[in-house]
Design a protein that fits this description.
The structure holds 2 protein chains of 2 kinds.
Chain A (H helix, E strand, L loop, with lengths): L1 H25 L8 E8 L3 H14 L3 E8 L1 H9 L6 E3 L3 H9 L8 E5 L2 E6 L22 E4 L5 H13 L2 H6 L1 E4 L2 H9 L5 E5 H6 L4 E6 L9 E6 L6 H11 L2 H9 L3 E2 L2
Parallel strand pairs in A: 1-2, 1-3, 6-7, 6-8
Antiparallel strand pairs in A: 3-10, 4-10, 4-11, 5-8, 5-9
Chain B lengths: L8 H30 L4 H13 L2 H12 L4 H8 L8 H26 L2 H9 L4 H12 L1 H17 L2 H6 L10 H10 L3 H29 L1
Helix pairs in contact in B: 1-5, 1-8, 1-10, 2-5, 3-5, 5-8, 6-7, 8-11, 10-11
Classes of the chains: A alpha/beta, B mainly alpha.
């Protein structure tokens, strides 16, 4: 009896190994990795990076990752003030480029994935005030537009560029409420408190039961919405940081990014 | 490093929001205190409820306010029918300021009422003075110190309110962006000079408030 239970357990273990095996094989050479990482990522990357981090720590059980998620501008300021961040993944190259120019980074930022910008509204928005796209937001009858703070939130900066392209940026900014990060903008719209907003495609997908996409911005309307990653200059563990950055480009990580709506940069 | 060419609208928005809210907080706090301190039954519960916003994290206060005044929930939906919008308006900022400032006014005033010698009030009653007259001519003058402290505290709390305000009233430059929110936005955007300017202005205002408050408490002695 005891033996058969043991056998059953063994069989179950065998049955479940194929799922884990590929990842353990890939990283067999790195399995000795251990230590702590502090990983800062833009709010739009929260769910994808948390999941990637979880997979990474499953492969390397001796590694512990702390996460912080905020607007890219806020993280940039924190790094400039000496926050003990090892790796920074931004929602736009502006922040990482500025950090690099001011020698806060260990190496040049590397582009990981792309995103898109979308105009969204609550799913039940009154048809009579619903704009048809970025171009007529100011004439559609909506009295409020939610965007990220253009000076610190990449999605807000892209939104400003899109409205500049359409020539209605002044009218829009006059009726804009500035979110402290893109997730706040998403929530303002998803709860119906703001009638329209501009967020990343990945944000809109994450709340598709609450928001509808009105228009996807064409790439020529704004600077490329690229998410670069960079290792911070005063990281405590360059080996570990490098291993994690490499892991972001692995097939496993890319498939997670894609599942959340990002597309590979390459 | 400061910037003297900043957009000064947050200063006037903050002062307006704090002034309007402190007037309403004063009235609400005064009557709430007068009501609660006389209670015999259920005093503990009501007192806890009235004090709760002081202890709650501002984000929790903001979550409650959004729940009540949000455009798709509760009172907010009702008011919308009358054309009144709370979320993302200055009214929302005032409501957030009242919510967090009320406990300070209420507690300071209640404490002052409790210090009044019961014999004085009883003596007034035996002389046939009405309760209303006792309230205005005996209780209020005798509780003056506590009431002023409450007003000053509620005003400063309203001036510094951030978490609940940004959740309920948003961050609309020229409409709902207060000084505290302006500091936050400037720091995030890396505009150190602007952030420093607001930091100095807010520190100066807080300093003045404390001096005024100390003046009043010294005069009493």
């Amino acid at each position: 009896m005891k033996k058969s239970i043991f056998l059953l357990g063994f069989l179950m273990a065998c049955a479940s190994t194929p799922i884990i095996q590929p990842t353990t094989e890939i990283s067999a050479k790195q399995s000795q990795l251990s230590g702590n990482l502090f990983f800062a990522a833009a709010a739009s990357l929260e769910r994808a990076t948390l999941e990637i981090g979880r997979v990474f720590t499953q492969i390397h059980p001796n590694v512990h990752i702390d996460f912080t998620h905020a607007s890219s501008g806020a993280i940039q300021s924190q790094i400039e003030e000496g926050a003990p961040i090892d790796i920074f993944m931004s929602a736009s190259p502006n922040q990482t480029n500025s950090l690099y120019a001011n020698v806060f980074l260990y190496s040049t930022p590397i582009n990981v994935v792309r995103n898109e910008l979308v105009l969204i509204s609550p799913i039940n928005l009154d048809e009579s005030i619903r704009p048809t796209g970025f171009a007529d937001v100011h004439t559609s009858g909506v009295e409020l537009v939610a965007i990220g703070d253009p000076d610190s939130v990449p999605a807000g900066n892209f939104a400003r560029q899109i409205f500049e392209y359409h020539g209605n940026v002044e009218e829009i900014l006059n009726i804009s409420t500035f979110g402290t990060n893109v997730t706040q903008v998403l929530d303002w719209v998803a709860t119906g408190n703001a009638p329209v907003g501009v967020v990343f495609m990945t944000d809109a997908i994450s709340r598709q039961e609450d928001v509808q996409i009105i228009e996807i911005a064409q790439p020529h309307m704004h600077d490329p919405a690229i998410n670069p990653v960079a290792i911070v200059a005063d990281t405590n563990d360059i080996e570990l940081a490098r291993a994690f950055v490499e892991f972001l480009f692995s097939d496993i990580a890319m498939s997670i990014f894609e599942r959340y709506g990002f597309s590979p940069y390459q | 490093m400061i910037d003297t060419n900043i957009d000064f609208r947050p200063f006037f928005i903050s002062l307006q929001v704090a002034s309007i809210s402190v007037v309403l907080t004063f009235v609400l706090g005064l009557f709430a205190a007068n009501y609660v301190y006389k209670l015999n039954f259920g005093k503990g519960i009501i007192d806890t409820l009235f004090t709760l916003p002081m202890i709650l994290p501002p984000t929790v206060s903001g979550a409650y306010l959004l729940m009540f005044f949000g455009r798709n929930t509760g009172i907010g939906k009702l008011l919308e029918n009358f054309g009144i919008q709370i979320v993302f308006t200055r009214i929302g900022a005032v409501i957030a300021a009242i919510f967090v400032g009320f406990p300070l006014m209420y507690r300071a005033t209640r404490g002052a009422f409790e210090q009044i010698d019961e014999n004085i009030i009883n003596a007034a009653k035996t002389l046939g003075i009405s309760n209303t007259k006792i309230f205005w001519t005996i209780k209020i003058p005798m509780a003056k110190g506590g009431i002023i402290a409450g007003v000053v505290l509620a005003f400063s709390r309203a001036l510094g309110e951030f978490g609940a305000t940004i959740m309920l009233a948003g961050n609309i430059p020229g409409r709902t962006q207060t000084m505290s929110i302006a500091v936050f936005s400037a720091i995030n955007a890396g505009n150190r000079a602007v952030a420093n300017t607001w930091t100095i202005i807010l520190t100066a205002i807080s300093f003045i408030i404390l001096i005024v408050m100390n003046r009043f408490s010294y005069k009493k002695r």
